Amino acid sequence: MDLMFDKLKILADSAKYDVSCSSSGVGRKNNGIIGSGAKEGICHTWSADGRCISLLKVLFTNKCVYDCEYCVNRRSADSPRASFEPEELARLTIEFYRRNYIEGLFLSSAVEVSPDHTAERILYCLRILRREYGFAGYIHAKIIPGVSQELLHDIGLEADRLSVNIEMPTSKSLELFAPQKKPKQIFSPMRQITNTLIERKSLQGPGTMFKGQDLNSPLNYLTPDQTLSIGAGQLRENQNKSAAGEKTALVRARKKEVFAPAGQTTQMIIGAGEETDRQILTTTENLYHTFKMKRVYYSAYIPVVSSPLLPGPFTVPPLGREHRLYQADWLLRFYGFSAGELLDDDNPNLDPELDPKITWALRHLDHFPVEVNKAPMDLLLRIPGVGVLSAQRILRQRKARSVRYEDLKRMGVVLKRAKHFLTCSGKYYGETNFAPDSIRNQILEINDGVQISMFGGDGSGLLTAGVERKKVEHHG
Amino acid sequence: MVDYLYDETFEGLLTCIYHHYYTEKASGIFPKDAYQSTMLGGCMEIETEEHKAVTVYEAIEKKISSWDLKRIYKVFMSSTEQKECKILNYVRLGFVKGPGIRLLHGDPIVFPVQEAEQKVNAEVHRMKGLIRFSELEEGILYSPIEPDHDIVEFLARHFSDRFKNEPFIIHDAKRNKALVAYHGSWYISHFTKENLSSHSKEEAEYRRLWKSYFENMAIKERINPRCQKNMMPVRYWKNLTEFQL
To answer: Pairing with B136, which of A106, A147, A316, A369 sits 20 to 30 Å away (CA)?
Structure first.
């Protein structure tokens, strides 16, 4: 047991920088001996950094042949190494799961010997879990670039969610920081996962981005020459290219098999290279449009290793920036925004002081105020302070009776932001001039002290770190 | 107008609603043990009668909807202040509006009920994650909890499916009741901790592994206790394995 104690410590320690811990996306009754999947996902605890722990997130091994600059496990790093035996990891997962500590397993790995060698061990472990223990809980498997198509496919048949890390938001950074990983190697497994999901008619896009569209049409097959240009635009025209040739090559699946029902995700490191938020969001959008990923995760760069190429060891992780990027990511997936709308040449980075939706609204005041009793869903969603749930409630109540201003708060609308951008039966409730600067000032004053506390109780206000909070002069 | 006092059962509450329509209009409904006379108007203790309760139960199902009946039951199981009066108002409005009542999200009568229901749903969801079983000597899984609302029965379906081959007990230590389940079937019963056997041999080892794993997962550059407490209020920590030992 003491050996296990040390192994778990080492292998969890190296895995904790992986961002995704979600257990959502698959609703499944217990079709085995133990376990089930909750569609909405379940968080089991929250660690001291405030991140939720849902899955047992470990590396299978941290012995690595690669030497990526940013990684704790790179070959040249002097750190303790360990590997699990497939049997012992399966047993540990089950015992944790029985006690309801976890929702399932997140299995990643360093590259020991070769990608295929590592993938084989992972597959073996997952098969023990699924077949010997009858485990019907959630499994997220990380796919290592360079793994063979057959192994990837077999892992997909055991796992609920697959992910391939894109690591860096631009190919330039990737070349610089992870010279052994090639964009082609990263995109090929991503493409294979998407194509397999299309073939099985089970591809679901991210959020509500593709609502009402049939993603599973053979026209959506991705061809190998369809390379994703990361960091720049123009991919959308490609995506409908047919690839009938490849379709026939794919083996027809047995009926009962399920391949990665919760889809695929990816993650990238923010703040190691010199990318702008615009490049990051464009890459994100391209990933959603091309591979129909469920999520793209961001991970604020933490200086775990020192390297002349990387920011210094005392760099504060850009948590505020990460937070704003996630907000923008939500706008892409659930609110019908596009990356091009949120950021442009004049504004390549997100505003650290205000959320991206308000910033967008302030730049497009001609779209406002929106009348809550008339506007369709997509317009309601554009109002700062109105979320998906409150927009749905507004629409529902409108079927029965008109929405009054005092109803909005009870519907979950954040009035301190929303009041500047809407009218209720023709009446405007904002108290300032209807001009970007005066609205901005008012929202910021109310926000003072509230937004800062979102990060850290010491008041250091990482969100606004280094940003001089200046009141914009009123030009009204 | 009179205040009705009831015995804190769901049937009792429904009987009071019956009397509101057939005896005398209710100014409010209150638990009889905690009632404080207001000097205004009188009060009347109501004896729970099954057929009256059933009449109201069926009327809600038929004239409003079974969805709203479930909603009302959840609010009844909540610990919100004056839940009985909120339910009475909701039912009265529901009999006027019919199933359309659920559309009125901003209504001052609907909102408190919707809010209480949400609190119950939120705690049920939260508890699905925060329950921590310990293995007892006989191989039974046991978990003590102290939820804000009376939710053990709402956990039954989730856990009895997930752990269909494990015998388990979820014990609401605040209310001395427990969900007991095995092989997919379950019941709720009175329960106290007496005579509970001790932990199995392996239990301590897995607790140690879990606690160490939990502590290890925090990235020290991102430490943020405030966010942690926000997501997982401290009142739940007492029964979480990762904070014990």
So the answer is: A106
